[in-house]
Design goal:
Length: about 170
């Protein structure tokens, strides 16, 4: 299958998300407890319903490792007419190898240039050390006015999603 390539570096590329080919792996990632914990959300729909849901993201791409063309994750930006918020999921067994940081950096460059944005937001929960590190390495700074207090999807305990922002002037 030929995919449109949005942006790449020596190791990975961000390429067109194709629902027919990518939905099942994406869905399976949502079934992973660490993903649910990272998003504070449990997806309770069938694979068929997941495949048929509309994609509203202004940008959605699969992350492909170049040396073997493995699809290692997905990255997306919130829908048009909303604050530009970037999100990522790295599939098992590709986690904790630096791919998320590299993909996030590529997506930032692509989104700033393609959508002519002044800033991009991202968030993670205060206990998600890997995402906190990734955001810091990618140049995000805390944006406390965007922090959200929520109930944990399982326990009902109060948790805080920390908000971060990256300004375009840092990407050139």
């Amino acid at each position: 299958m030929e995919r449109k390539i949005y942006i790449s570096n020596d190791e990975i590329m961000l390429a067109e998300y194709c629902n027919d080919f990518d939905a099942e792996e994406n869905y399976n990632c949502w079934q992973d407890y660490d993903t649910q914990k990272g998003y504070n959300y449990k997806m309770d729909i069938t694979l068929e319903a997941f495949k048929n849901r509309p994609i509203r993201s202004r940008f959605q791409a699969v992350i492909i490792r170049k040396n073997d063309n493995a699809v290692i994750g997905i990255i997306s930006m919130s829908p048009e007419n909303t604050l530009p918020d970037l999100a990522i999921m790295i599939y098992r067994p590709y986690r904790k190898q630096g791919y998320g940081t590299k993909a996030f950096a590529l997506a930032l460059k692509y989104c700033f240039n393609t959508f002519n944005l002044e800033r991009i937001y991202a968030g993670c929960y205060e206990t998600n050390i890997a995402s906190l590190r990734m955001l810091t390495v990618c140049g995000f700074v805390p944006h406390p006015e965007g922090n959200e207090i929520e109930e944990h999807f399982e326990s009902g305990e109060t948790i805080t999603q920390l908000d971060f922002v990256k300004y375009q002037i840092d990407t050139k």
